[in-house]
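Thread: "does anyone have the structure for this chain?"

Original post by V.I.:
We have the sequence but no experimental structure in hand. Need at least a predicted one for the grant figures.
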Amino acid sequence: MILNLFFIISALLGFSIFFSRSKTVTRFIVIFFGILHVSFSVYTWTRIGSTDLYYFTYDNLAVLFLTILSVIVTAVIYHGFIYVSKDALRKYNIYHSSLILLVTCMTGAYLSNNLSALWIFAEATTLAVAGLIYHDRTTVSLEATWKYVFLSSVGITLAFIGILFISMTMNGTPYNELSFASISEVAVNAKPLYLKIAFLFIFVGFGTKMEIFPMHTIGIDANAVAPSPIGALISSGLVNMGFITLFRVYGALSGSEIFDWMNNILILVGLLSLLTAAGYMLKAKHLKRMFAYSTLENMGLVAIALGVGGNGYYAAILLLVLHSFIKSSLFIQMNQLYRVQGTLWLDNSGRYLKTFPAGALVLIIGAVSIMAFPPSGLFLTEMMIFKALVINGRWFVLITSAFLLCCIIYATTIRVMHVVFSPPRQKQNFVADEKVSPYETVSQFLFLTIIMVLCFYQPPFLKEMIEQTVKVLFN
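Reply from O.Q.:
Generated one for you, tokens below.
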């Protein structure tokens, strides 16, 4: 009942903004939605393990990432108000309406216990995020929007083909639905060829949302041109949605004959993601694109962690939790850097520490965190992944991953240090028309503090939720 009300109220709030004739009214609606989403996330903690509306289950994985989404959405709403403050009313309303619909669809996808329902919500996120990518109405944003819609649609189509192959394995069985529990029961005795084809199509298809090789390109372009608060949401909430889809399918098929084969595919894709990220980051000239490729790098590590198993399962989920907060901080910071320096191109940027010390500190800490240097929690997750690789004797994967990570660390370090300390290579005539308040960095410092705390202390509830989530893979 509560979930039904959440969907209805959220949809009404999203569509009602189109009829708003005042920015004040729109802000009130968006703030109310933010409170609604946080309240709903709190409610899900009281319902862990239960099912609602038949197609939705409040399991540990969904509740954990839904809570993270609520925290990040709160920051995105606040910084979004700043980003669109000077926009015309119609543009202002489209932005916030699309934001509400996007978050609502992601919430549905997180909670879906049925592959068909999840597919519908994933498709809906494509339409919602398209309006946000095109917000600035530039030629570049138009190109990125069409690219996102086209390739996401291709991806969703490929995923649908994979779903059809899974449904073929259920013919002649007592199961007539595509719940993950039913798929798990059928997969044990299903034809391996059908399952392999299904997994490949679903993995590639939903890889558009997870921003992993080979469907990573649309995520890179989307993050580069979308408003910075939306980039924070895409690189955290939407990426997490892609992972949840992959993890649920992987978990459902883990009891079948193709389990080892899936692991090899995940490790291969993970290495290719690291290779691609390293190659592009070494020649990156735009800060947002560089951090977008950093998302590809981290999703590659997640794929390797899943593929290697053992402690890697725990590390994969913890890495996503940490990545969500770090990447949100960095993308939100990009808007502040742009307002101070008038550019995100590396050659035109420089001496950020002098022009905006608070923002420069966020950028330094965020870069250190995303590179997995202590006290970043990512250091812990990468050590767990490397340990799992050693235990499994995956020496080639270990050495290759370590080398590629060194390249990524080098690329990130020299670029961030240039922006913070060095003078611009190419001067531009830009005078900031407003002063960025240091108080705008509070949310970013809070997120980065969480990252450092989790390096040394993981609350019992977090450990238990992750352990209960990965427990199914050890059966």
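V.I.: this helps a lot. Residues 260-475 form one domain.
O.Q.: and The chain has a mean pLDDT of 93.
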